[in-house]
Automatic annotation (TrEMBL):
Any GO CC annotation of this UniProt entry: plasma membrane
Residue ranges constituting the PAS domain according to the UniProt record: 36-89, 161-230, 288-359
Official protein name in the record: histidine kinase
GO molecular function: histidine phosphotransfer kinase activity; phosphorelay sensor kinase activity
Organism this protein belongs to: Methanolobus zinderi
Amino acid sequence: MESHNKNQDLSELTEQNCSLEIDPDLVFTGNLSSEEVRSAKPFLDLVNGFILLIDNEHNIVSINKKASSLSGYAAQDVENKSWLDIFVPANLQDKLKADFSSVSCDETSSQDSFECLVQCRDGTELNMDLKVTILQDGDGSTSGFLLIGSDIVQKKKVIRENTKLLSFLGAATYAVIFSDSSGHITFWNKAAAELFGYEEEEALGQPLTIIMPKRYRKAHEGWDQIISIGKSPVVGRIFEVTGLRKDGSEFPVEISINTTHVKGEVFHGAFLNDISKRKMKERLMTISKNKYRMMFEKSPLGIFHFDENGVITQCNENFVKIVGAPEENVISSIMGFNMLRSFRDRSIKKAIRQVLAGIPARYEDNFHSPFSSKVIPIKAEFSPVISEEGKLMGGVCVVEDFTERKAAEEALNTYADELSKANEELKSLDRMKDEFLSNLRHELTTPLIPIKGYSELMFDGALGDLNERQHDAMEKIMLSSERLKRLIDSLLYVSITEGGNVDYTFIPLRLTEVLESAINDRSPEITSKGHTIEKDLPCDLPLIEGDLDYLRNVFVNLIDNSVKFTPDKGIIKISASNEDDHAHLQIADNGIGIGDTEILNIFNRFYQVDGSSTRKYGGNGLGLYICKKIIEAHKGEIWAESRQGEGTTIHVTLPFKQKSMEDQPSPEMQE
């Protein structure tokens, strides 16, 4: 009954004159009887293969159309004749009989194949692979053989091409994965291993779901069925999915899927590419666009874009405010506005034309807005917009409304004029002050000179002998007159310094001689308080360059402070040393010292440590300030170190003079 049904189906195909070529590998499987093969003769002609039906004596019972076409023999030319005599060259018949015998007598299988050189009618030869199917009768005895041949050259060519293709896919830089109809991996190239982290031996045979995040696996279960019937919308298209690596990390993948049918089974091929970098670039591009969009919208400046014809295509809110366009009608009043046609100002038109020629331009002037009746002082910077291909796409303009700035500039100019007038008045007052101080010094010094002179004469006994009491009184008069002179000189120096009019006379000096002179000057005060002076002043110090009078005044002032702020019978140490390119002077005492807070301010003008010190020791707070100014004018430094109750050390550094053959100490110091 089953055989009848098969024959009925074959007859129907034949009656329909079906021209379908069928792969012989898909048709003849398992054991067949001679009767079944003979009844299938019409169907054999539809098979795309070289087919011979032979009996046990190797005589041809039937030949299909494909075999006739390939060999050039018609059915009537070969039937009932030995297929070996017709199709096999004489020199190969013995070998072929042996091959055929070993195949047909193999009891382990009902099918096998061997290679055979088939000779055609025109003398050409076909290298074929002959598959032998043993035909059996109902009692199990062999009744004949079915020979199915395929072109070995073509077959090997296909194999070579497939091998080459697999080699190419294996070396591809993108991941290539094949799977069977059940969704199990059958091919896995090196790029796939690098992409997903599974080696080839780990991946082969595994379900495709191992490279899919869990949330997508259920949807994939019905996907294969859709793909297998060729109706999936994803087949032949490129789309994006999420991949899963062996380590559990996910990443974006671009994938293309294709299907193929081999021997009735569906295979899927997937080509995958990691697009993580591209996605990152896209995200960065989006962030960048959003950032620049925000800058465009939120900028305190007006910004607008125009095309290559000078037509405004886009603007921000501040530009609308600057030009005074009605907010409810921005699109119709600004967008599409042709600046070259409608602007009245020739200068701004010139700037626009310059930008449309690819050259940056600037406009700064009062702008007559065509969108309102406003006249606005603006500064506009125009820049051309050029594509990557070098094509001019238009331009962009940044506009600043400097109405407030202009008003501020006018106010500033007015203030500057007023300030200039006030400055002239101050200069005039300053000149008057200088004249007053100069006159004051003269008026104070004039009576002081005879007082000081006659006091010295009387003190020396030139005007007669003095008793001890008179002698002490004259000494106090002399000291007070000297202090008064220094006070007058200090006030005058401060005044001159502020005006920048100090006139220094720099000459080569021996520092030790200047110090000795200052010590001698303060000798009476030192003696009267019973102080001990300890000196360490080397005579071989290099020369310095300075103003003799001003430097002597500095050292006199410093020594005077030590004398004044050291209790009776104190010790004052004065030393000088050579340190690289400068001299280092130290004046140290064991006096009352200075607190940490006060020492920061002692070189400030008019600064005094405290009221009690002022009352007890006197002073005007100018001495150290003047010392600092003079030392700095000599490119030196001055600073103090002190501990309250233990004493103070004043440090002074002065640069040595550059050596020269003409260097000689001052004549006055030599004397």
